[in-house]
Here is the input.
Amino acid sequence: MRTIPDPAAALTPAGERIHDVAARLFYERGIRATGVDLVADEAGTTKKTLYDRFGSKDGLVAFYLGRRRLRWQRFVLDRLDGVPPGLPRILRMYDVLEEWLADAHRGCGFVNAHAEIAGTDHPGLAVVHAEKAWARALYVEFSRDAGVDDPETVGTGLFLLHEGAVVATTAGGVTDAVGVARQSAVALVDRALAGRAVAGTSSAPSPGAGDSVVDEPVR
Here is the structure.
């Protein structure tokens, strides 16, 4: 099987057209409902060119998810730039999510893809899992910076609020879901910090506090 192109690398003009069309159709219509004939036709190219560039439809799907992952991560990191560590970054994440969802009426493209390819050996699954791990790691890092005792648990809770807000906004039609998640995040962090104060825990940073996901380069 042909190696899937690096999502961070530029493609030929034909390859870029194929990706752009596939990205729109996979998100709007779904992966299974979108055939390679339609993608090639709308991209003004041939199936042979599609297979030459991406190896297979699965390869094209994995590339699309990789490109979407890079776009989302750059979107997040650009908007976190200059925001102080800790609670301000946690709250900023929900603002960023709300901004992203304004142009994502079908919800999370990664969750949508997972619903179609889960339980298989599809190469796109690794992209989906890596994206969710990255988002969770951000919240864990920001929780650690906020000074809570158990950043893994608190950060995971914040990540679950994030994911739940996406589903509630799109599938549930809850218009203020992200705002409610943001308020719940404040309560969660405040409760964790209050518990620390009662316990008289040292304010020393948790192990691993220097390992920043935000500072990792996004290609």
Remarks:
- The longest helix spans residues 57-80.
- The mean pLDDT is 91.
- DSSP finds nine helices and no strands in the chain.
